[in-house]
Specification:
- The structure is a homodimer.
- Chain A is of the alpha+beta class and about 100 residues long.
- Chain A has a single domain, classed as Gyrase A, domain 2.
- In chain A, strands 1-2-4-3 form a 4-stranded antiparallel beta sheet, covered by helices on one side.
- In chain A, helix 2 runs antiparallel to helix 3.
- Strand 3 of chain A pairs antiparallel with strand 3 of chain B, so a sheet runs across the interface.
Chain lengths: ~100, ~100
């Protein structure tokens, strides 16, 4: 059973991942990514999309040319869960 | 030389393309797309991304699961141009 992270767990999660912050309502985590150009930004998005499909957990995201803003949240728990941590870990892994 | 469409031309452009509307500031055109699932939504985004790269004219867009919101605008003219019309025509072509 998927459980919602507590506010303390949520805060610790984002503090452990560089560049991530809690959304204003505390129900999600957000990070801005900047790439060389659109091609690089969309290549990144494609990697994340494939992994999201494998995990069956999808980002909410916005792209403007070389910039990508990602919000992770788990609607089933109305907050953050380990799924968000796992997807964020993957994203950090491929952008490190 | 790329020229900004007049307000009349901008209005005519969106009136001719189903589902498109001008943004509140009149400098862009926006449409919401809904697909069967994330896979279909991202397949659509990939098609648009490849064409955008060919045209060297890129959308501003947001995706949440099966939904994609696209805003087209031309920063060089601080408004709409024929580039937006051409990319919108392509998008309509592949979603028709």
């Amino acid at each position: 059973m998927l459980e919602r992270l507590t506010p303390e767990q949520s805060q610790r999660l984002v503090s452990e991942l560089p560049g991530w912050a809690l959304t204003n309502d505390g129900k999600g985590m957000v990070k801005q990514f900047v790439f060389a150009d659109f091609k690089a930004a969309f290549a990144f998005m494609t990697q994340v999309a494939l992994q999201a499909e494998v995990m069956n957990h999808h980002p909410e995201w916005r792209n403007v040319y070389n910039r990508v803003e990602i919000v992770l949240t788990t609607h089933d728990v109305d907050g953050l869960s380990t799924r968000d941590r796992d997807l964020a870990d993957y994203i950090e892994h491929i952008t490190r």
